[in-house]
Amino acid sequence: MIVYSFAIEALQLLLLLLAAPAFAGWVRTVKCRMQGRSYAGIFQPYRDIARLFTKEVILAENASWIFRFTPYLVFGVTVMIGGIVPFISTDLPFAATADVIALVMLFAIIRFFTALAGMDIGTAFGGMGSSREMMIASLAEPAMLMAIFTVSLAGNSTSLTRMVQVMAHGEFVIRPSLAFALLAYIMVHLTETGRIPVDNPSTHLELTMIHEAMILEYSGRHLALIEWAGQMKLFIFSTLGIAVFCPWGIPASNDLLAIIGGGALLAVKLAVLGVILVLIETGMAKMRLFRLTEYLGSAFLLATLGMLSFFILE
Amino acid sequence: MSLTLAAQINSVMAALILLTAFGLLVQRRILALLHLFAWQGFFLCVSTAIVGYVTGEHHLFISSLLTLTLKVIVLPYILYALIHKLKIRKEIETLVNIPMTMLIGIGLVIFSYHLTAPITQLSTLMTRATLAVALATVMLGLLMMVTRRHAVTQIIGFLALENGLFFAATSATYGMPMVVELGVALDLLIAAFIFGIFFFHISTTFDSLDVDQMARLKEGD
Amino acid sequence: MTPFDIAIASLFLMFAPVILAPCCARSRNLTIHLSFSLTAAASLAAVIAGILCVHLESTTSAVVQMGLPDLPFHLRLDPLAGFFLCVIGLLAFFVSIYSIGYVKAMPANRPITRFVVFFCLFIAGMLLVVLADDAFFFLVAWGLMAASSYFLVLYEDEKTENRRAAYLYLVIAHVGAIAILLSFGVMAAQANGFETFQGYTFDAMRATSYPLGWATAAFLLSFFGFAAKAGVIPLHVWLPEAHPVAPSNVSALMSGVMLKTSIYGIVRITFDFLKEFPWWWGGIVLVLGLVSAVLGVLYALMQHDLKRLLAYHSVENIGIILIGLGLAMIFTSFHLPLLASLALIAALYHTLNHAMFKGLLFMGAGAVLHATHERNMEEMGGLIHRMPWTSALFLIGCVSIAALPPFNGFVSEWLTFQAFLFSPALHRPILSLLIPLGAALLALTGALAAACFVKAFGVTFLGHWRGHHHIQQVREAGWSMRIGMLLAALTCFLLGIFPTVVITWMDVLSRQMVGGKIATSAGAFGWMWLTPYSHERASYSGFNVFIGILAVVLVAWLLLHARKAGIRRVPIWDCGFEKLTPRMQYTATSFAMPIRRIFGFLFAIREESHAVEPLRHAAYPQRLQYRLRVRDRFWGWIYEPLREIAFFLARKIGNLQQGRIQVYLLYSFVTIIVLLVFLG
Predict the structure, then answer these.
(1) ipTM over the 0.90 cut-off
(2) C429, B110: Cβ pair inside 8 Å?
(3) Three-state secondary structure along chain A?
(4) Closest chain A C-alpha to B23 CA, distance in angstroms
(5) Counting CB atoms within 10 angstroms of each CB, which of C14, C208, C577, C638 has the fewest?
(6) What is the per-residue pLDDT for C614?
């Protein structure tokens, strides 16, 4: 029985590794389609990654071990997180490793080391990216945790498994607090995964790039790992949102049929979420850096309102 | 519709009203403000209708209808026409920066929750929980009037404040007597007209609707 | 041997160098090796005593017939004291090992004996503070600790800056000590009235129940006094002045453990003596903790002096500890012992963690200081190539203090977050609603701390060297310094991986102080899962996080390296620009600029830039000079008015000074008359 549940865990990790590029490809495809551009199909990210893996690594002369270690660490932490978020089943042996708060801090490891890698080479771009990333993160993190607190108040737990079970199998209640938290979460989602209006994943314009500025010096397999991890991060943030706010369909047991059904439902939800993300991205312009205080302030406000309405209205 | 479901929908409406109140507080563009105000009126009207349906107080339907016509259609339309005529396009500057306004707003919500908590504990009405939101809406409207410097936004703040009062009446006592509500509605309508006239005068005198210009009315030293 | 005997032995060992060092002053090397080996042994003994005492839950007390007649010294070792003994001893052990190398590397013309003597007295003072069991002895130990640390801060006394910092430290330490003395006075009076002296023992204070008014007075006074010592905002101003100018091993001890003695004091007085209190006491502690945490980290972000930055982080971390204590007090006042114990354990665990990583970071800063002779981060950079050990160990400190899993700082912050989330259990709706907002501030603190340490590590160790002299002169720290840091880093790691073991060991503290015990583990492999309430509520496993990340990293690395894909080293791509210089890198100031701009209203910022030479041609950029000064607003708000008042009063009192002997005699005469009138 234990072996079986570990097999399910492995299945989830495999799904994460394989489906993440496809999801990123889906978002790109929908975006291209919506903006009237031609598109390379949802499998393009696989081809990109495969190509990068075969390429030679070009490393700056003064890059230290931090620069070379970061891609592996980023990849490792991302996969680790992917093993914790219950998206194919809530009965994962690894799920108890970290609750939601710890999950947020696990993402902070990625950010911390990416920012250090940005500063390692000693170019102005890297430093600029790191500085901006840390500034944005310091505003996004309270909003993220506030949103999570709101949800955990409703579920009376910060354990993801428990939150999913309460939401999916408990009595159905309309909760305004969750709606607020969801809005805040989407705003933070866009921030953390570096999308418009905060950052643009497909830009290399000096003045606007943030995440790309930090990883500008990466090449070859290092870049492949970082790109792959980035796509997994997008996938994880989306599935985390689904698990917390719309968990209906995530099976509570490791019954194989239920998992297949849940997986199909998850694919549908992800597809819809991808379209929503694209709609937001297409409908908004990238913001000026110091307007972000207002953007993230609003996210914090929404999350706080969610919490207040939990106490006031529920 | 069961009582709990109605109460839940009503609290969703309350949450939305609170959200629009905050939206009014932080929005810079004047047309968006107007839309938000219309939405607030709409949520108010839905909430009133639900309370009316569940409690069987039929006069609430009339106030709901009145809200719909007056606050969702007529007043926004008057203001829209005014904005159009006075050609107000640019973004509105606030006196206090926006994140700070938000924090003050959160503080006000907590404060009104603290104020209404004893009343909520005594009351047995279905709508008792929303009283705090109603009071908060009033306070946020006032805050908006304090922090904005454009005359039109101040009026919107005032109208939002009135929305809050109306909502408070619904949640505390299932609405005011019909006569009072009709009177208030009439007052509002007339107020809107008077504002319109005043705006014209202000804008022709000062070439601007920035209320800071009023400081020039002070006797010079 | 009982734990108490070991503790006493440790004290004797600690005092031994005070006598031995002057005897062998002729040989510098011998003095250093002998004294620091002895302090290391003594500290280790203190650690063993502490661990055993908490483990065995033993309480031993003794009376020493010393001090004033009829006022003997009382000593007592109970689990709370044992825990702090362990914290102090552990860091003192690492720092003692580190000091062998550090003190050796000091300039040869400095008198070593003086340093050694005060160093030992300082550690002994801290141990005695924890062991003292009466107000009199406590204050003696407190004074010993303050005075010896004052002399240590003043060690490099040729600089005016150092003398000024030490003086400021002394003043605030004394103001705090007076408040503590008054607080003891209030409690002693309640314990036994004014007629006899026997109320001054802690036993008497413990046995008394206090009326609310007097209890509040005692609490507020003692909290003020301890807050002054701990550097709680707004009483923090001495801290960023005194810690950077002290030798780094002393700053490690001051920041790591001396501040913790005041945490000990607060816990001792509130939970052990006063016991029953209204919730708003906890509210005060919580709010001051939040303010200290947020402002501490923001001020830290604005610093470019490495040690000053670390000093401000001590303010932040003391804030986090106080948050835990405040929550524990609030939960206690609502009679929720389980939750109170969760918050208390969070606070105490953070006390231990902060001692470890802050000690490590100050030791690392000391190593950098010795290698570069520079405290300003803007003059550093690229040290990772010259100091691989120091940089790796410093990085561990950074990761721990930035509360990243699987290191120790995360565990205690996580426990604090959990405590915050139990606010709905309180019976006051307004409190349950307000308290989680504090969690948002704690999250902000954590994220800003991460930003700050990206800056500290990135600017100091990464990128290119910015200094004036050549980087080839920079040397790695000596072996003893490396061992000291390595041990501290290892402790940080182990405390992060095996929190359950430590927390189970600490359980007795929460049982004795607040009468609750948190469930730390559940089911098989219980040591792996940290589940403070129940496993359904929340769980964390640092061990799994570490193993999981390690496994994936290893697999990825092996897979990618098996294929022997090459790495080509090339010069940095300069975007076609002619020549990149180290001056084009992001500096500490520019790194913090976005945050400075957002939170600018909290600082007194003076920014000026002007052209140094006239514009030669429109095509050439102008040479600009840029100055930035960021200051604590509290100087202007509180301390400068206070200084004005002090000077004003001094001038007024100065009028009494006439310089004529008759006038002075008249003063004495009038005094005698007045006394006779009132007493006669």
Answers:
(1) yes
(2) no
(3) CHHHHHHHHHHHHHHHHHHHHHHHHHHHHHHHHHCCCCCCCCCHHHHHHHHHHHCCEEEECCCCHHHHHHHHHHHHHHHHHHCCCCCCCCCCCCHHHCCHHHHHHHHHHHHHHHHHHHHHCCCHHHHHHHHHHHHHHHHHHHHHHHHHHHHHHHHCCCCHHHHHHHHHHCCCCCCHHHHHHHHHHHHHHHHHCCCCCCCCCCCCCCCCCCHHHHCCCCCHHHHHHHHHHHHHHHHHHHHHHHHHHCCCCCCCCCCHHHHHHHHHHHHHHHHHHHHHHHHHHHHCCCCCHHHHHHHHHHHHHHHHHHHHHHHHHC
(4) 9
(5) C577
(6) 74
